Amino acid sequence: MEEKKKKRSSAKTLQTAREAGYFGKKMLANTRMAVDEGRPVAWAMVEWWLGATIAKAMGVELVFPENYGAFCAASRTAEPNLDYSESDGFPSTLCGYARNCLGYARKLKENNFVIPAESTGGGMPKPDFLLACGAACDARYKWFQALGRYMDVPVWLLEFPQTGSKEYFLPGNKEENISYMVEELRAFVSFLEDLLGRKMNWDGLEERLDILFKTHELAYKVDLMRRTVPSPAVCTDFWALMIPHLYLPDDLEALAFYQRVYDEVKYKVDNKIGAIPNEKYRMMFSELPPWHTLGFFDEVAERHGVAFVFESWNYHVPPPLLEDEKKGITDPLELIARYSYHKFHHAAPAAKEYEIDPILFTAPYLEYVRDYQVDGLMFHPLMSCRPATYTLMHVRNLMLERFKVPSLVIEGDIVDLRVFNEEEALAKFDAFIETMDYHRELRKKEGLHW
Amino acid sequence: MQKSSGLERASYIYTNRLQVARELKMQGEKFGGYLCCYVPVEMLSAAGYVPFRIIGDMNEPITNADAYLPSVMCPFYRSCLDLGLKGKYDFLDGLVSPHACDAAERVGLVWRSYFKYPFTFYLDIPHTVHASALVFFKQQLAHLRKGLEEYTGLKITDNDLKKQIKLFNRQRELVRQLYHLRKVEPPPVSGTEVLQLAVSLMGLPVQEGNLLAEEVIKEVKTRKMKPSKMKGRVLVWGCLIDNTAITSLIEDCGLEVVMDDTAIGSRTFGHDVELTEDPLDGLALRYLEKIVCPRTFRETGKNRANDLENRFSYLRKIVKDWHIDGIYMNLIRNCDIHGYEVPEVRYFFEEIGMPVLVIEQDYSTAALAPLRTRFQAFAESIEANR
């Protein structure tokens, strides 16, 4: 049985990263406490800060089943949930987070919506509604729709238009996208007001947005500092740190935490302290990691001096909105819409420059590879979070053609550890080192700056 | 093109659709490629393009696409790009790709990164049918229209669009007539023959397609039918079927394919475009709201029963009207849109007494042989309970 595989957690190189798991536990605990106190609870998809802040301003406690899926995967407790969902007829090719959640929801239902005692992290309580999202992958709404099988709770789908690189620059198109998002957010506010029987707390929303932007500004500055050689932090740090900025950016505790992250990273940069002792190769990772085997990244750092200096566009904060774009906006819903749209389209100029598509999951890497002086990329096509990886081969081609940066492709999964072969992956990595050496020379000959 | 008519001609065009397109191109036609059933073909036709539905080929191993798309994605869309990379679609003059599902969206966008057609457009499609979604979708259609006008130098007037809407409504109505003819027992036309016609229509100029459909109906209506020896009548639900290898396999096993709920079938031909004063209103409504595909989210309602009724009650009517004996749920591996739907659709069908066969297949004719025994067993069970 695969369960016998030795678990290899990552050590993480930042002290703050080692502490960040607290925020995941905090979310779970807060939702359970809310239920005890009779306050509303929702399960939400990651929706790039479009609706979660609004819901929280209305007093709703949120928990993110995607994060719960990663939690279960990292603690290697997902398999029983996966089996349970498959036995209900859900194909094994569906998103691992989704199958974990569907299996969990069935257990919850079978236990009369009392959280089963053995639930990982104390478990997620039954929600009052489900907050789905139309961005990035179809699972973000089909999964929550499928939960109707287990619980009679409404699903609200937040629309999130996605634009092609050419269409982004069509006159009027961007503003139409923003207007559409604003209209949808107004409808969401009405939905919440009807469901909860209370009016929107607009002042509360503005306060939360203020905190969110401050947290994100710090997170963005941390990203910028990671361009330094040697890199002050690596991917395993980021995947822990992303919990507060992705799920709880409007939380004062998260803001205070991110100040500490910033301070720690800045200290390392100022004192030229690398995340790994002997950084020889700077690599980038895309898109989601094998949560169950994060120790893999420590191993390649130790063996080859590989620092994963950047990763996973989808989960990073975007560059701050330009002042011009914020100027004159008085409606917080419009500010939210502009920011979320910006998250998905900030790399449109790069897409235009290189005449490529799509913007999402692809164009940002064209900027990162130069900015972070990347020697190679590791791509991780996922058996069960497939849409995040549909463009990996495309990005691989672009990196090699345009920047002479090679890629290593290692298949695996975010949740299902049965499909990740660590020994084979390490052997592939050993061979890839020479490839990076070769291309480093090639870049020099071609006048590329790293 | 071969001189034949009706079903024989449909079969010929189905088998040789790329060659037929090239011949038409030699005669001066321009081809606008498009993915999925969410692209308004009326718009392409009004701009002077023959709308050409890009499909895959289950007979062709996917090789070239391996360098561009991971193996873990939808094999149908991988196959589409594979054919493109092999030059099979080199006669296309443009490409319109919709945000129909993740795979359609990404493949369309990756496609145009490598093939620089004179005209391309990415059509974003909302996931809901909210009023604001309709407004937004109409704006997207206006951008498509303007883009086509700028590229072709032709003004696409409202009257041009209305004329095309009437022509395509006629085509949809003709195909529906053929569907209705299959309500009787024995059906005078097989599922394989209907699929051949459907695929043919998606690569012909609309008027030529309408003539072909009229010929087929005329021929089918005059057929002398013998009592059927088939074991049951099935509805195919789910992922698209673009290759008769599947319908033939089902029919060889003793089952009549009399109706479908798929994207090369009733989802394409099931609903007309309303002739509204502003034709974009009718197009937006038809393509966003009327096409019933799991990719579009419908409001969940008060509870599960309400939700299932909202989403699937049309299937109950199909089962009744077409005298369905069993359901084949066709799932192409890695299709999330349909994959999440399977347990609930299956439950819905079983609640109305329908036996169900779910198969997740790999979009490859080489992988169909092992499925024969499953269809045979399904046919036997249907016959036993008929």
TrEMBL record, chain A:
Key words, A-Z: Iron, Iron-sulfur, Metal-binding
Family: Belongs to the FldB/FldC dehydratase alpha/beta subunit family.
Top-level taxon in the UniProt lineage: Bacteria
Organism: Desulfotomaculum copahuensis
GO molecular function, one term: iron-sulfur cluster binding
InterPro entries referenced in this protein's UniProt entry, alphabetically: FldB/FldC_alpha/beta
Required cofactor names: [4Fe-4S] cluster
Entry protein name: 2-hydroxyglutaryl-CoA dehydratase
From TrEMBL, chain B:
Gene Ontology MF terms in the entry: hydro-lyase activity; iron-sulfur cluster binding; metal ion binding
Highest rank taxon of the organism: Bacteria
Pfam families in alphabetical order: HGD-D
Cofactor(s) demanded: [4Fe-4S] cluster
Keyword Iron-sulfur attached: yes
Entry keywords, A to Z: Iron, Iron-sulfur, Metal-binding
PANTHER family documented for this protein: 2-HYDROXYGLUTARYL-COA DEHYDRATASE, D-COMPONENT-RELATED, SUBUNIT OF OXYGEN-SENSITIVE 2-HYDROXYISOCAPROYL-COA DEHYDRATASE
Membership in a protein family: Belongs to the FldB/FldC dehydratase alpha/beta subunit family.
Protein name: 2-hydroxyglutaryl-CoA dehydratase
